[in-house]
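Our example copied in:
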Amino acid sequence: MGGRVIFQDFLKALGQLPDPRFRRVLLLGIGLTIALLVGAYAVILALISMFTGDTMVLPGGYEVTWIGDLLGWGSLGLMLILSVFLMIPVASAITSLFLDDVAAAVEDVHYPHLHPVGRVPFWDGLRDSVNFLGVIVGANVLALILYIPLFFIPFAPVILFYALNGFLLGREYFTVAAMRREGRAGAAEMRKANRGEVFLAGCLMAIPLTVPVLNLFIPIIGAATFTHIYHRLARQP
């Protein structure tokens, strides 16, 4: 029963993807993410130039003039590889700054009888986004230590990936959806009371994380899905 109604909430969220407010959040998240990654690469290049200069003198007085270029191209390759792994958590964190707009759009269409609520203050949203980015990156980096011994157990790394990210995404998106009307403490209490359903819904969000392009939509779909989940749970006695 729980899985079926969660999937119904998910389908409602998918059906609202053409909403202009959804597209705006998606484009803002992707654009700011790319700008952040490009800015980080510019800082790396500046540091390489600062410490290597045009030449590097090796022991014996031999001058090497190509070391800066080598490090520069090497850093580009490294940045391209890292961007594959960083794009999703960074995009999720940045997009979460605007998930209030997604939740408001869902309520306007599906729950028009509700009174409007104020936006989460920008600095509170920024703090939550940075915390979420740190947690999801840190947790997945630590999980890499477990992936190695689990590699020889069939499906174990895959299960760990989905379970970990399902837990993190469920916790984040339910909190974003519920705290608009329940406050932070009320959202935490509701999440704990429905931890099983929140976890299952988070796992449903985690599955598309491994699908290129589709994974960029997860923050929006997740926020919309959990807005439906919150309102459904709030109606229950």
About this structure: Residues 24 and 88 are 18 Å apart (CA to CA). The helical segments are 2-15, 20-52, 67-95, 99-110, 122-150, 156-193, 195-206, 218-235. The first strand starts at residue 56 and ends at 57. The beta strands are 56-57, 63-64.
